[in-house]
Queue: 2 jobs
Job 1
Amino acid sequence: MARKTTHKIQLMKEKGQKIVMLTAYDAPTAKILSECGVDIILVGDSVGNSLLGYESTIPVTLDDVIHHCAAVKRGGPKSLIVGDMPFMSYKVSIEQALENCGRMLQEGGAEAVKIEGAGRVLPTVEAIVDAGIPVMGHIGLTPQSIFELGGYRVQGRTADKAEVLVEQAKQLESAGAFSLVIELVPTETAKLITEAVNIPTIGIGAGPHCDGQVLVLWDMLGLFEEFKPKFVKKYADIRSVIVNAVREYSDDVRQGKFPDADHSFEMSEEESGRLYGRIKPNDN
Ligand code: KIV
C-alpha cells in the first residue's frame, strides 16, 4: 500500500471510495492494520477504556497518547496516523493547543490530530491548521464532554438538533479541518452532514452514508464481554481465543507438559556426558 496522506483521503471522498479507519495503540497492531490496507489509524483517547482500565477517556493524558502514538509510529504503518488530543489538552488557550499538537507530531510521530467539538474550539482549529498541522474534527457524541452531555446518548435526533450539527460541520470545514468524525447520530443526520460538506466524514454509530467508518479495534475484535453497544459489529472473538490459550498453557505447565523437548535447548551428547561425569547428582 502506498503511504496515505490527508490529500489522498480527500481524493477518496471525491472518487466515492469508502475510507477505512480503526484505532491502534501499539506497534505490532499498527503493522497489521497497515498490511490490511487500513487508510487511517487513530491513536484514540479510547486507549483509556481499551487498554488502561479507565471508565472513560477523561483521565487520559497527553503523555499517554503520545506514548502510544510513538509505538504505533514504530510499527511503520503506511496508514495515515492521527493522534487524538485528550481532555483539556487543547481548550485552555490557543497557545496551549499549538504546543500540545506540536508535541503529538514531534514526539508521537502523528501526521494529524483529532479534536473534539465545534463552537469555542473553532479559532483553535484554525490556528492549528495555520501552523501546518492537519486537524480531524469530531462532532455528535464527544466523549470528553460526557458530563455536559449527560451520558453516552445518541445526538442530533431531532430536525433542529441535526441542523445544529450540520452547521458545526460546515464551520469546522471552514476552519480548515481535513475530515470529520461523526459519532452516535441517526443515519439521516449523518447523511445530511456528509452531503453538506466537501471534506470526508467518518462515522461511528452514524449509519452507512458517511464517507468512511471507524471502530475501536478492541470492540470489533471482541475483547470485552460487558461492552456491547448497538453500533459495534463483532468481527472476531479475541477474548475466547485468549481465554482458551491461557487455560491450555496453564494446564500444560501444571501437568509438566510444557516446556517439552521441542521448546527446550539441549547440550550436545558429548558435553552433557562431560557435565554429568563431572557433577554428581545432588552435588552443589
Ligand atoms: O478515541 C477514539 O477511539 C475515538 C473514536 C471512537 C472515534 O475518538
Note: The chain is about 40% helix and 15% strand.
Job 2
Amino acid sequence: MKQYHSENVPSLLQDQYGRIKRKLRISVTDRCNFKCVYCMPEHPEWLNKQDLLSFEALFQFCHFMVQQGIESIRITGGEPLMRQGIVHFVRDLQALKALGLKRISVTTNGHYLAKYAKQLKDAGLDDLNISLDSLDSIQFKELTKKKLEPVLEGIQAAKDAGLPFKINCVLMKDKNDDQILPMVKWSIANHIPLRFIEFMPLDGDALWSNKDVVSEAEILQILQPHYSVQVIEQQHEPARQYLINGSYHLGIISTITHSFCHQCDRIRLTAKGELYNCLFAPQGLNIKPQLEALVSKQHTPEYEMTVQNLNDLVHPYIWHKAKGFHALQYQQTRKISMHMLGG
Ligand code: SAM
Ligand code: SF4
C-alpha cells in the first residue's frame, strides 16, 4: 500500500491507485416508503431526525467537494423525495455550477415523482435515475411492498416535465428475472434508457448469496434469441453498453461479474455524515462535526481553519480507498446496507 504524504498528493481527490474522484453521491435520508427485498432490512431502525445532516451542512460539504474537483452530485437515500426541502436544496446547489459543478441528479423510486418532477426541473435538476424492477403489478408489490401505478405516473411526469431519466432495474434470480424481456421491450417502445443491475451484497439483512445474482452473461443469453446484441466499448461509466437491434442502447451494471472498480471515480456521504470511499468499504469516516463547524464558523475568522481540518481528514481517507469490490468482499464485518449508503 502506498503511504499518504500530503505534499505528494495533488489538491484533487485522488486515491493511491491514481483514480481521481469526480462524482459524489449524497444520501439525504435513510428513510424509505418502499421495502425492496434487495435493499431494506425487515426491521429498519431509522436515524433520529437530529442525527441527520442539515441541508446547510450538506451544502457546505458539496461546496468543499466541488472545490476539490467534484463535477457531478447525485442526491439519493433512502428515498430522497421523502425529505422535506429537497427541491430548495437542488435549487441552492445551482450556485456551485459557477465553481465547476456540471451535473446535479437524483435517484428515486419514483413514487412521489408525479408531485415533484416539474418542481425539480424548475429548480435546475439535470437528470434522474428511476428504479423500476418489474412491470407486473403483483410482482412489483412483492418486491417493494408498494404499488406500481404511482411509479409509472411518476415516469410519465418526468417525461412531461422534460427531465431526462434512466431506469434502473435490479435483477434477482427467480424473483424478477422473467422481466428481462418485458423491460427491454417496454423501454425500446417508449424510448427510455434502461440499465440492469446485478444484485450486490448490500441488502439490509445480509441474506445476499451468489446464487441470487442474475449475471450479465445470463441477461445476454436471454436477450440474444430475440434481439441482435452488440457490445459497445465501455466509456467512463459503470454500465457496459450494448446496442440492441442496431439502435437501442441497453446498460448493464455488473459489479459482481465485471467490476468497474479500476476506474471508479465515486465517493459517498451517508445521511448521518459518514464519508465512504467505496460502496464496500469496511468503515466510513464520520465528518459530521466538521461539517457542522463549517456552518457555525461561516463568516468568522476560524472558517479557513475549519476548512483545513476537513481537508486534513478527507484527503488521506480518499487516498486509502481499496482497489475494489473483489479486494473487500470477504472482509465484510459491517452492517450497512444500500438504504444507508444510497447506492
Ligand atoms: N430509493 C431510491 C431508489 O430506489 O432509487 C434511491 C436509493 S436506492 C438505495 C439507490 C439504488 O440502489 C437503486 O437503483 C436500487 O435499485 C439500488 N440498490 C439497492 N440495493 C441494491 C443491491 N443490494 N444491489 C444492487 N442495487 C441495489
Ligand atoms: Fe427504498 Fe430505494 Fe432501498 Fe427500494 S432501493 S428500499 S426504494 S432505498
Note: The CA atoms of residues 171 and 177 lie 6 Å apart.
